[in-house]
Structures are given as structure tokens and as C-alpha cells.
Amino acid sequence: MKIYIDGDGSPVKGETAYLANKYQLDLIIVTSIDHYSQSPISDQVKYVYVDQGPDAADFRLAGLVQAGDLVVTQDYGLAAILLPRVRVLSQAGFEYTSENIEGLLAQRFYHHQARQAGYKTKGQKPFSQADRDKFSYFLEQVIDQELQR
Description:
CATH architecture: 3-Layer(aba) Sandwich
Protein name: UPF0178 protein AWM75_03315
Number of domains: 1
Family: Belongs to the UPF0178 family.
Distance between the termini: 11 Å
CATH topology: Rossmann fold
CATH class: Alpha Beta
Number of strands: 6
Structural class: alpha/beta
Largest sheet: 6 strands, mixed
Strand order of the largest sheet: 3-2-1-4-5-6
InterPro entries: UPF0178
Strand content: 15-25%
Organism: Aerococcus urinaehominis
């Protein structure tokens, strides 16, 4: 099992790296070259850099993951693509499933339509320490489940 992060804009890289190290799991962060850093989170973290482009990291991630892997993303579209093959987790501390993905995609579509029509929609609130703690607890539960299979 490997853990992948859709790294463009993910606020949970540090928390994920900590747990990957604790359980001695490979962590691969797939991100745009725009987010290149010379100070990686840890030596155990591998980075895969992709060219600029709206879905470049998504396409690369889709090509890398294998059955049994975990993926962390906030992208509903990517989650829908990956769901048949791997477990996909949200940084908000829940798992994308075949039962909830259609509703999430529909919600994204309706919000997009509303914005195009001139309506204001709420953006995401800042990611808090409580959000980080919730995600860390959730990710550790998922890792434990997978290691016991």
C-alpha cells in the first residue's frame, strides 16, 4: 500500500507524511512544477512533478495508483475516476464512495452554474487545527483497516 496526495493546494501533507512515516508507508505527492520546493517535508516523501495544466496532476495520479493504494484529494472529479480502483479520502476527513460521489459532483455542478449566473457561493473556510486533527484521526483509522486486511 502506498499513499498518494493530489498535492496542488493540499493542506494535509505534513499530517499524512507523519502517519506514512509512523507506519513505514511510501508517500508520493503529485504536484505541479509550479509548487516545486527545495525543502521537502521529509526524506521519505517522494515528489512527482508534472507540467502546468488544469488536470496534469490528476492524469498522472490516475496512471500511478494501483489497487490497495490510498489517495488524498479534494477534487471530486479525480475521486470519481479513481474510486473503482483505490480508496479515495478527502482532506475533510471522509471517504469518497460510490454512494456519495454523485451527490458531491452534482453539488459542484450546481455551485458552478450559480456562480456563472452571478450568484455568490460560499468558499471554503480556512483549514483549522481541528480540521487537521479530524483528518489525521480518520487517516490513521483507514491505514489500520488496510493493514489488517
